[in-house]
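Practice problem 4.
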C-alpha cells in the first residue's frame, strides 16, 4: 500500500514552516494529519468529513445530525453497548458534532489507547449497521433534542437569525432539521446519504498528542481499507469554493413568540466568507466591537447603562458567505432602549471606526486567546481538521500571530464602514404575540 508523507508543511504565503505537523495521503483520497505535542500523555483524534447540513436536500434536512446519533448504535463488529464499554474501560471520550459544512467523529484517550480509539472511530464512520429499530429509537431522541432547542431561546434565536438572513439558502436551515423532516425521514434516505456522502475522498483523519505519525497513518490505512477500496482512484476533495454574492444586505425582522422572562435580540449583517483575505481584520473588528469586557458594546450596553446582563458580537464564515451579529438579552420593557444603543454603537463604528487603543486591546485579546487555545490536544486536533477541509493547508500559530499583528486601525475602520453601514437584519425571541408589540426601533426594520 502506497503512502505519500510530508513533514513540516510549509505555509505558502509566508514560507513559515509548521515543523510539528505531518501529512500522509492514503489510497482512496484519505488524508492523515498529525501534530506531536511534547509533554502530554493523551491523543485527541477525529475523522472529519467534508459534509454538513448545507449539503442536504429538503428530504434529507437534518440527516447529517441524525447520522451523528445512529452511527454509534452499532456496526458489523460492535454493538452500541460494546462501543460504550470499550471507551469507558480506558476512561476515554467518544463523541461527534455536525456543522453546516462538515462533520467530525472524535475521541480523546490516553496515548496507549489511541490504536483502539482510531479503530472504533473508523468502524463507526464506515461500518455502521443503521438498523431499522435504531432508526426509530433515535428518531425519538432527535425529536427530543429539537424540543430542547425550542426551549432554549438563545439557540432558537441563532437559528431564526440565520433563517432570516440566508432566506431560503441551505445555510439558513437548522442543523438538526425540523420536526417535520425528522418524522418523515426513512432509513433508506439516511442510508443513501451516508453511503453517498461519507466517502473517503472527503475524509481527513486528524490527531494531536503523544503520537508517532507513521504509526497513525498505518493504523488509519488498515482501519479504512474497506472504505477506501470503493474509491481506488480517489482524489482528496478540495476546499469549497469561495464564490461571492450569496448574501445581500436587506432590512428584515423576524419574531418567534416565546413565553420567556427575557427578550432575546440578534442584530446583524452579512460578513465575509472564509477565503476573504480580510478575515483577520474582521476578527479584530468583532473582538473590539463585542468580544470582551472592554469591548464597546459591553461597555455601552451593560457597564454604562445596565440594560442587559449578556451582550456580545460574533462572526461566522462559510465558503461563500459570512455573518456579523450582535446578541443581547434583556427585560422586555428595555428592548427598545437596547436596540437603540446597539444601533447607535454600530452606526458610530461604521462612521468613525475604532480607536487605536481599542484595536490594540482587541489584537492582544486575540493573540492570547489563540495561544491559550492551543494548550490542549483537542484544540490542536480541531485546528488540523478544520484547516485541511476549509483551506487545504495548515497555518502555523506564528503565521496566525503575524496576521493579527499586521492589522491596522485603518483597515478595521474601512471594513467597519463597508459591513456596518447597511440595512440591519433582526431576530427576536420573547413574550410578544406579533410584531406590532415590538418597539418602534425594531418595527422600522421590517
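Answer key:
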Amino acid at each position: 500500500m502506497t503512502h505519500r508523507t510530508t513533514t513540516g508543511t510549509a505555509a505558502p504565503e509566508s514560507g513559515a514552516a509548521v515543523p510539528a505537523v505531518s501529512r500522509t495521503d492514503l489510497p482512496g483520497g484519505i488524508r492523515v494529519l498529525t501534530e506531536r505535542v511534547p509533554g502530554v500523555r493523551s491523543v485527541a483524534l477525529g475523522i472529519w468529513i467534508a459534509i454538513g447540513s448545507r449539503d442536504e436536500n429538503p428530504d434529507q434536512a437534518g440527516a447529517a445530525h441524525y447520522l451523528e446519533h445512529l452511527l454509534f448504535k452499532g456496526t458489523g463488529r460492535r454493538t452500541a453497548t460494546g462501543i460504550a464499554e470499550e471507551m469507558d474501560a480506558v476512561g476515554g471520550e467518544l463523541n461527534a458534532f455536525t456543522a453546516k459544512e462538515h462533520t467530525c467523529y472524535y475521541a480523546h484517550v490516553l496515548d496507549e489507547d489511541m490504536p483502539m480509539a482510531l479503530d472504533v472511530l473508523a468502524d463507526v464512520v464506515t461500518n455502521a449497521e443503521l438498523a431499522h429499530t435504531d432508526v426509530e429509537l433515535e428518531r425519538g431522541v432527535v425529536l427530543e433534542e429539537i424540543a430542547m432547542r425550542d426551549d432554549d431561546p438563545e439557540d432558537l434565536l441563532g437559528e431564526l437569525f440565520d433563517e432570516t438572513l440566508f432566506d431560503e439558502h441551505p445555510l439558513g436551515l437548522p442543523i438538526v432539521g425540523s420536526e417535520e423532516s425528522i418524522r418523515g425521514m426513512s432509513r433508506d434516505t439516511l442510508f443513501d446519504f451516508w453511503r453517498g456522502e461519507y466517502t473517503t475522498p472527503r475524509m481527513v483523519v486528524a490527531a494531536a498528542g503523544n503520537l508517532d505519525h507513521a504509526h497513525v497513518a498505518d493504523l488509519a490505512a488498515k482501519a479504512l481499507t474497506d472504505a477506501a477500496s470503493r474509491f481506488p482512484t480517489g482524489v482528496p476533495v478540495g476546499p469549497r469554493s469561495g464564490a461571492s454574492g450569496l448574501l445581500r444586505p436587506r432590512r428584515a425582522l423576524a419574531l418567534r413568540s416565546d413565553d420567556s422572562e427575557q427578550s432575546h435580540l440578534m442584530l446583524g449583517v452579512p460578513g465575509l466568507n472564509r477565503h476573504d483575505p480580510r478575515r483577520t481584520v474582521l476578527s479584530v473588528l468583532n473582538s473590539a466591537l463585542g468580544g470582551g469586557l472592554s469591548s464597546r458594546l459591553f461597555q455601552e450596553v451593560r457597564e454604562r447603562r445596565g440594560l442587559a446582563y449578556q451582550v456580545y458580537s460574533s462572526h461566522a464564515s462559510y465558503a461563500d458567505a459570512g455573518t456579523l451579529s450582535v446578541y443581547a438579552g434583556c427585560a422586555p420593557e428595555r428592548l427598545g432602549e437596547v436596540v437603540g444603543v446597539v444601533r447607535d454603537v454600530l452606526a458610530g463604528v461604521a462612521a468613525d471606526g475604532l480607536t487605536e487603543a481599542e484595536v490594540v486591546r482587541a489584537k492582544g485579546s486575540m493573540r492570547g486567546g489563540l495561544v491559550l487555545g492551543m494548550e490542549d490536544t483537542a484544540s490542536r486536533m480541531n485546528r488540523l481538521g478544520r484547516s485541511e477541509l476549509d483551506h487545504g493547508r495548515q497555518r502555523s500559530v506564528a503565521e496566525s500571530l503575524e496576521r493579527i499583528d499586521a492589522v491596522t486601525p485603518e483597515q478595521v475602520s474601512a471594513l467597519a464602514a463597508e459591513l456596518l453601514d447597511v440595512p440591519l437584519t433582526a431576530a427576536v425571541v420573547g413574550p410578544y404575540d406579533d410584531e406590532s408589540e415590538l418597539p418602534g426601533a425594531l418595527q422600522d426594520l421590517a
